[in-house]
# Entry
Amino acid sequence: MRLIETIKDNNYETISIIGLAKNAGKTVTLNYLIEEADNYNINVGITSTGRDGERIDLVTQTEKPPILVTEGMYLATAKKALLLSTAKTEILETTGITTAMGEVIIVRIRQRGYIEVAGPVSARDMKYVAERLKYYGAEIVFIDGAIDRKAVSSPLITDACIIATGAVLSRDMKKVLEKTAHEVECYSLKEVASHVKEIFKKVNKTSILQEDGSTITPNIVTSITGGKKINELINEKTTHVFVKGAVTSALLKDLRENKYLRGIKLIVEDGTKIFTDINLWNGMKRKGFKVETMNKINVLAVTLNPISPAGYFFDSQLLKESMEKILPGIKILDVVSGGDEE
Amino acid sequence: MKSVQKVDLTKIKPYGDTLNDGMVQMSFTLPVPYGDEASEAARQLAAKMGFDEPAVVYSKDLGVGYTYFVMYGKCSHTVDYTSIEVPKVSMEFMEREEVEEYIAENIKRDVVIVGACTGTDAHTVGIDAIMNMKGFDGHFGLERYKGIDAINMGSQVSNEELIAKAIESKADAILVSQVVTQKDVHVANLTELVEMIEAEALRDKLILVCGGPRISHDLAQELGYDAGFGSGSYANHVASFVVKQIVEKNLI
Ligand code: B12
# Structure
């Protein structure tokens, strides 16, 4: 099934496109999806958490692909970005949300052309803008993530996500595979059993669940520095530890020392909350450390860009095959050389 | 007295001895052994870069088969200076005394600001210039401000430590300094901080500002910050921005 059909069949309304690094190919992926949606007569809405569509990248000064849209599509972008777009548009709403490039405006495309997208930067404003795009008639809203930011892919904001990765991550293909696999693993963690989920949802704080169903709430301001206190409260009767907020290397290093580690499951809010050193994470998992999530993120596909703007590239076939091998069951698309084949 | 030739701001190019001669001096290293062939390679490369009359004026053997060059060349391109627009924090900056009054009148409590130079970056001078009592270039730093509780954590602070400190001290604003930009480490560092703050559900409760010689307001906003301050920034600029934002975002 083609990617666009999967999105339609699952009734996903908001899709985030996040990159594991700058220049991982988010814009190419977005263009591909816009074209596919157009072929299927689906009205799409487009916005971005960063700035996209401009020809020259702000950070690396390398050339970037422009974004082409056609009549009937919806767009949320900042005023100055709109002035730089060649597509003819009709203004539907001024949102009051400000960015470096001016207020975010919602428009309908009247005539085919290129656009620059610069949408809201905070996850909360993004949620609002996506709602508005849907309100005006967008059947699917694509949100292009900024640089390597991933907060918009939280299930609280988008229904599913597409991960763009590629050669730009490292000159060493093994590292690209490892980093991509780690990210997909965090996103696709198994959801915790529903009765446990209900308990933690009610507590809604970092807490420890015991065999008998009782919970202990450590007196901490953040789990980032709360590892030691959490550790002291874990005992042989502990079954789950729920961390609300960021799960960082500092916290995991504290937990690593816990002698009951094998018997407990760590529960995260969702995959975007995990910030860990890959070696630490993998090392702990080998020792029997189990992690589950309150909310799973639907990873629809991983897209590949085998070329790095730093001037090196991978054999695209080899990259694709290797990625498929370490990510069985996930759709891998080389968007640079064409996307879905059938 | 000779009359000064008028500059056409819509077509500016480098100045060497005379206006619009386009003269550029550049230097680079090539991974080839010192010699005539190396100099010719450098010359051809500069020609490919678009320089007219490229000339090697100095070359030096760096050993291990590498050669260093200093070159001249004439740039044939121009830039329209009048069409340039660089987004900056657009507001009227208040002086220290005005900021202090503004806080007393509108916020009516101490404003807590935590700052640090993060990651492996060890450059403290920038963040000190903004935060320390003494300040920089005749402008006192935030520590000197009545109504501001400034906490400077120094350099090589991890994003985790910075956020933990901000939460612990109930900070209104976080100031991050990034000076080293090699391999875009500043980008990775700055986005990680925003992502962690989003994960801790704090993004709407904090004013997030970054700064450094290669930071622009544009880039800062793209990364998800409220503002970015580059070279030539002073404490009163940041203070003005932060206190106004506290009121605007209703974080009093
Ligand atoms: C002093 C210095 C050092 C000192 C730092 C001492 C210290 N305690 O800070 C030492 C010797 C330790 C050092 C080390 C290194 N340095 Co050094 N260093 C410099 C130097 C000469 C001056 C920097 C400085 O102090 N500027 C003065 C301050 C006041 O300016 P500023 O930082 O721009 O800050 C202003 C604004 O940017 C802004 N601002 C800055 N931060 C913030 C934050 C906020 C929130 C706000 C609002 C505003 C703001 O406000 C400030 C006041 O206007 C520069 C070259 C140069 N001339 O600029 C190189 C330079 C910064 N260093 C450089 C490098 C590469 C290094 C090393 C990696 C060298 C090495 N190979 O070991 C190491 C890195 C160590 C590390 N882990 O970070 C490069 C950085 C290149 C790059 N862009 O990545 C530079 C540019 C030199 C060069 N041309 O190569 N360095």
In short: Residues B 115, 120-127, 129-130, 136, 175-177, 179-182, 209-214, 229-233, 238 surround cobalamin (CB under 6 Å). Chain B touches chain A at residues 87, 158, 160, 163-164, 167-168, 184, 187-188, 191-192, 194-196, 198-201, 203-204, 216-225 (CB under 8 Å). The radius of gyration of chain B is 24 Å. The domain at 96-248 of chain B is CATH 3.40.50.280 (Rossmann fold).
